[in-house]
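Ticket #4471: structure export looks truncated?
Reporter: QA, pipeline team
Priority: medium

Steps to reproduce: submit the single chain below to the structure queue and open the exported record.
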Amino acid sequence: MVGAAVAGVLATASPASAHGFSSVVYAHVTSSEAEPETVHAELGLEYDLMLVSVGTSEHDDPFYRQGQAAWDDGDFPRMVQVAEAHTDSLSDYVLDRFSVSSAGRSCHGELEKTITVDMQDEVPYAEVAVDFTCPQPDRTQPGHVVTSSLFPDRESFVTDTKTIVTYDVDGKQGSATLDASQRSFSTEQSAGARFWEFFRLGAEHLLTGIDHILFLVALIAGSRRLREVVFTASAFTVAHSITFILAALGVVSPPAIVVEPLIALSIAAVAGWYLWRLWRRRSKADELVVGDHGRFSLDRAGWSRLAVVFGFGLIHGLGFAGALGIHEAFSWQLLVSLLVFNVGIEAVQLAIIVIVFPPLALLRRKAHRASLWVTGAVTAGVFVMGMIWFVQRLAAG
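Actual output as written to the record:
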């Protein structure tokens, strides 16, 4: 009964909103010593979103209608042709929402006429380039400021758009993330400020990714002792860190149509594992049976569960990387930023364990039978929600 109620509450979250950001803009900003007054920006814009946003904001309905027809047909050459025929509208939209300034003065931007379209995370993206001509560098105010408000919430098409910026400007290399709470950054920003942005982004992603949270809740509810929580959480961390880094650096790139249903299935599987044990062993479901040869004080069931969690952790790492949306060539600067993003995820994960596990442990000690009912109800709700998402994501694919 309680499990059904939990599932009913959780069912209000749609599969689309359960994981990831609504849209991600990619920006690669560079300058050269030969032409320090010129800043080149290469932008990746989700094609379908670009059509509706530009068409509405710039009152260019033919751009939207023609581009949408090409997008529906998957006709990439036609998609490029339509975009290049409407560069005036696209330029007005982009330059009104993406800018570069130097020494407190705006740089003049000009959109290049050549546009390409390719797939990124199974979604067509338009690749557009802008050249910014800036005032002569001012030694008293070094650096450039990059500002992005592309696809803002007020347009009502998406929410919480992230602009992921990698840059090599003014002899400084790095990466930054911009959103509604922080629209600008300076190439002179400190390493601490840059890393804080990625830490915050990682923490926010786990907090807003209810599917990952439910997976963690199922792990905690099904753990019988503190050491089992520590081992399973560590296995999950190591596993998702491996695939997260590999996917974010472009080494592996499985399609989201495969990853997202598997993440949902992992939630149901981990919850179902505990429900099956509860059904078989009843009041002894939370007993830890360790023989003389038990390693690290785990029994056979604990080790089997650990292997399952590690396997599913690899899949969740692909989901984390897809949400961050970085697929650049390897660089130490980028790798450090990715690691900081991952630390943000782990900080929230640890906070959830600290909040959830102690009350369950106390309940198990003071009211053993009640603790089994509570953990059973919670995992039943998580199991139902995982299966709902699994079916929905399969159908959507």
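Status: closed, not a bug. The export was complete when the record was re-opened. Leaving a note from the reviewer for reference: Residues 1-21 have pLDDT under 50 and may be disordered.
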